[in-house]
Design a protein that fits this description.
38% of the residues lie in helices and 15% in strands. The protein has 24 helices and 24 strands. The longest helix is centred in the first third of the chain and has 24 residues. The structure holds alpha-D-glucopyranose. The site of alpha-D-glucopyranose (GLC) has 9 residues, from loops.
């Protein structure tokens, strides 16, 4: 980094108000940008980045500029307890962008303030991985509406207090994207946008240390393309071509896309598969340091042009790598504002299966700190499979074998285990590694489907209390809880995916249903499963919004378990301490009250039921799958 680069903006004397705005923001974020850029690209890239920023800012409309100013006054907007996320496919949820607008009352009924609409840009024709193979970043999927309809929907969401998240698929484009087409036509500029190899020598070298992401339907990481007359890097499917991020042109293109989407009204971009964007021989080509330098540069550039935009890292990686996406060391506070808490998600499933909270407590207690400006995206499940990202050391800390436990979890959730309540399916079973990830809806994995099959009302009640407890955990962890469409109605697996040719080989569609609005209409009838689950989750949202202690800047502390099946979330906050109590046992458990006194509570008031706990002989009795949110109020 050079001094002349670092001072460039503030030295000029800006004349217009716009120039002054940009100069002030450059003073604030310019250095982060320069540090990120010069860590990976030639220094002259900075000037080129500046041009993209200025163009993006010039194209930003007055309404969004006002939103920027508002957010600059409330930079912690995404950390507020009132943030409640919902993730859905536009078509499956509401048909079109206009349809989404019509469904805003439903979202508000659930307390939603953050809506993630999954891939909605123009995908390739044919299979497209649920839209994660983008053919054009500046066009929408025709059946959903136009880009103008998207922008209009964003405005309507904003007017209703809902922030909009869109996917930014940046590791790869569809083989039908014009960059790929031009590469195929032999254009040297565009061939450099991809990793292209004339023979197998280099791919074979890389393959020695690369894992396979979709071993069942897309083995290997390289695909032979006839028209290219070469091998092209394809981490995911053969028609998803990895972009070559070591080329600064790729950075500039994607930054331009980011600002374009921000200017349509996106408040947050989900950086899809961000872990994979940098490659180095001899490594697994995930989580490399350059990924973080690039993210820092992208974020700083976006903040200068559109400071109300935040980014969310989709890095589904082990605990020791995950925290780096929120910024550690020199990147602290300079990377994604949000990252998926994949570990919390995995530990919730693991604890339900084992009826044991010790591994969760041990793993979460050893989690490094994240910057106070960060927010975890906390979730029970999402549109993808559940992979057992359990650290071997964490497993060893409670005397378990990582391998053995992962095998048990797969068996349990597939339903191949005597006491299992789950109805799931194995996704991408890998014979070589023994790895089996899991597909299935939240309700099916937590016992609703089995209880219905067996017409067992008692088991159904228990399954519903598991759903309530799992959501009580992700709503209480601090961060943005991300509710995945259908969970709020207790929807079971959708086996009809097998009838759709494009989906049949990908059982993740088991848990990506069409919204059954006739069931959603039952949500206040007081007796249906939909109504029981919906009212539980909506209630969690209302209580959460009123608890200042759930602001994401405060970390949740989890330490040695107070009890083998009970985990405690401790949040010390000036507005009042909070202790979440969660029992993974199917039986009521006695908990010594000292565990609660010691965590800064002097009264034991459950914010969820508005009841005082009863103490009997120095203990409280936590119900089977019980969840308490204790405060001093
Ligand atoms: C992300 C998406 C997943 C997709 C993959 C490739 O992990 O969530 O659905 O298959 O990226 O784009």
């Amino acid at each position: 980094m050079t001094a002349s680069l670092s001072l460039a903006a503030s030295q000029t004397s800006p004349s217009t108000a716009d120039e002054q705005t940009l100069a002030r923001r450059w003073d604030r974020w310019g250095q982060d940008l320069i540090d990120g850029i010069t860590a990976v690209y030639p220094p002259e890239t900075v000037e080129r980045v500046r041009e993209v920023i200025e163009r993006g800012y010039a194209q930003r409309n007055a309404r969004l500029r006002e939103r920027d100013e508002e957010r600059l006054l409330a930079p912690d907007w995404y950390q507020q307890p009132s943030m409640i996320g919902y993730a859905a496919y536009t078509d499956r949820f509401a048909g079109t962008f206009k349809g989404v607008q019509r469904r805003i009352p439903y979202l508000k009924d659930l307390g939603v303030t953050y809506l993630h609409l999954m891939p909605l840009l123009k995908p390739r024709t044919g299979p497209n991985d649920g839209g994660y193979a983008v053919a054009d970043y500046r066009q929408t999927r025709a059946d959903l509406g136009t880009m103008d309809d998207l922008a209009e929907m964003a405005t309507a969401l904003h007017e209703n207090g809902i922030a909009l998240t869109l996917d930014l698929v940046l590791n790869h484009v569809a083989d039908q994207h014009q960059w790929a087409e031009k590469a195929r036509q032999g254009d040297p500029k565009y061939r450099k946008y991809f990793y292209i190899f004339e023979d197998r020598t280099t791919p074979d070298e890389f393959e020695k240390t690369l894992p396979e992401i979709f071993p069942a339907f897309a083995p290997g990481n390289f695909t032979w393309d006839e028209s290219l007359d070469a091998w092209v890097w394809t981490t995911f499917n053969s028609w998803q071509w990895d972009l070559n991020w070591s080329n600064p042109d790729v950075f500039l293109e994607l930054l331009d896309v980011i600002l374009y989407l921000a200017n349509q009204g996106a408040d947050c971009l989900r950086l899809d598969a961000i872990a994979f964007i940098w490659k180095r021989l001899g490594t697994d080509c995930q989580n490399l340091e350059e990924v973080h330098a690039i993210t820092q540069a992208l974020r700083a550039a976006a903040h200068i042009a559109a400071p109300s935009l935040i980014i969310k890292a989709e890095a589904i990686v082990g605990p020791s790598q995950l925290v780096h996406y929120l910024g550690q060391g020199k990147h602290a506070g300079k990377l994604s504002e949000i990252a998926y808490h994949n570990s919390l998600m995995v530990q919730i499933w693991s604890a339900f299966a084992s009826q044991d909270a010790r591994l969760m407590a041990s793993a979460l207690s050893r989690f490094p700190s994240v910057p106070t400006s960060a927010a975890w995206g906390t979730y029970v499940r999402c549109h993808d499979d559940i992979g057992w990202a359990i650290d071997d050391n964490d497993a060893a800390s409670v005397g378990w074998s990582g391998d053995g436990h992962r095998r048990f979890l797969s068996d349990f959730f597939i339903g191949d285990f005597a006491q299992s309540f789950a109805r799931g399916a194995a996704f991408q079973a890998n014979e070589l590694t023994g790895d089996r990830r899991i597909s299935g809806s939240c309700a099916s994995l937590l016992g609703v489907e089995r209880a219905l099959e067996q017409r067992d009302n008692l088991a159904l009640d228990v399954a519903i209390s598991r759903i309530r407890m799992s959501y009580a955990m992700v709503y209480a962890f601090g961060g943005i809880p991300l509710l995945y469409m259908g969970d709020e109605l207790g929807l079971t697996n959708d086996y009809s995916f097998e009838d759709v040719a494009e989906h049949a080989d990908d059982n993740r569609w088991l848990h990506r249903p069409q919204m059954p609005w006739e069931i959603a209409e039952q949500r206040h009838d007081g007796k249906s499963i939909a109504s029981r689950v919906f009212s539980d989750i909506a209630h969690l949202g209302r209580v959460r919004a009123g608890l200042a202690s759930l602001h994401a800047a405060t970390a949740t502390k989890v330490d040695v378990p107070a009890h083998p099946s009970i985990v405690l979330f401790e949040r010390r906050h000036a507005a009042g301490n909070f202790v979440g109590v969660f029992n993974f046992s199917p039986h009521p458990q006695r908990l010594h009250v000292d565990h609660l006194w010691a965590r800064g509570l002097h009264r034991l008031h459950d914010a969820l039921t508005q009841q005082q706990l009863t103490i009997v002989g120095g203990h409280v009795i936590v119900p089977a799958y019980g969840a308490w949110w204790l405060t001093n109020n």
